[in-house]
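Something for you to look into today, if you have time. Could you write out one complete protein record for me, on any chain you like? Leave the record below and I will have a look.
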Amino acid sequence: MKQSAFIVTLFFVAMISAYLIYELVLGNPANFADYATKGTKHVPLGGNIMALTYVGGPLVALLIGLSIMVIAVIIERTLSLKKAAGKQPIPKFFKTVIDQIRSGNINEAVATCDKQRGSVANVLKSALTRYQEVTAAGSGIEKEKQLVEVERAVEETLMLETPLLEKNLIALSTISSIATMVGLLGTVIGMIRSFKALAAGGAPDAIGLAT
C-alpha cells in the first residue's frame, strides 16, 4: 500500500474509531448524573473521569483520533524496522558473514545475505556482489578503483533502502504537531468557558482574574 493511501485510510479509520469511543464509551449515559432526569450529559457522576473527559467537547474526539494514528504509525514503523533488520540478530549475522569473507567464501556470504533478508543484508550483499565483479579474473582494475566501485554500490543500495526506513516518519511528525496545537486550542477554549461561567455567577472581574 502506498504511503499516502495508508495515511488517508488510517485517518478515516482513526477518526471513526475516535468518534465511537467518544460517544459510546466516554459519553455513556451511566457516567452522568443528569441523564436519567434531564436526558443531558452535563454533570459527571461522582467525578467520573470518562464523563469529565467527555464534557471537554469535540476536540477530545479529535485528540483521541490523532492518538490512534500515532500509535498505529509507531506499530507500523516498529514492525518495518524489525523486518529491515532481517531474520537473525545483526551481530550474529555480521559475525557469520565476516567469518565467511575471511575464509574467502564470498559466494557463501552472499547466500547468507539472501537468507537474512532485510535492508542491512541488502546493502551488504550489494557490496559483496560488486566486489566479486571488480575482482574477477582479468578485470585489471586497481585496488583503489575497486574500493570506489564497492562504495558506490553501497551508496546506491542505501538510496533505495533509506526511503523505506523513513516511510511515514513525516506523517508522524505532522500528527504530533497538530495534536499539540489542538491541545492548546482546547486549553484556550476551556479558559474562555471558565471565565464565562465565573462572570455569569457574579464572580470578580474576569480581566482581573486573567492578570
In short: The mean pLDDT is 85. The chain has two domains: 3-83+168-210, 86-165. The CA atoms of residues 8 and 170 lie 14 Å apart. The chain has ten helices and no strands.
